[in-house]
Write a structure and sequence with these properties.
- With about 55 residues, this protein is mainly α.
- The protein is about 70% helix and about 0% strand.
- It has 2 helices and no strands.
Length: about 55
Amino acid sequence: MTYHSVLTVLFFLAFLALVAWVYRPGRKQQYQELAKLPVRDDQQARAGSDGEQIHE
């Protein structure tokens, strides 16, 4: 095996490990919460100083 072949196999294994880590079942809840962050941040930014919503 050449140096390039070894690196290719190592990077492929690292890719598979990353995919397994991202798609493991326990992460679904966390990803759903993270998906809501932009909307939640936007709602907080639009809130007035007294906590009421400002409508544009």
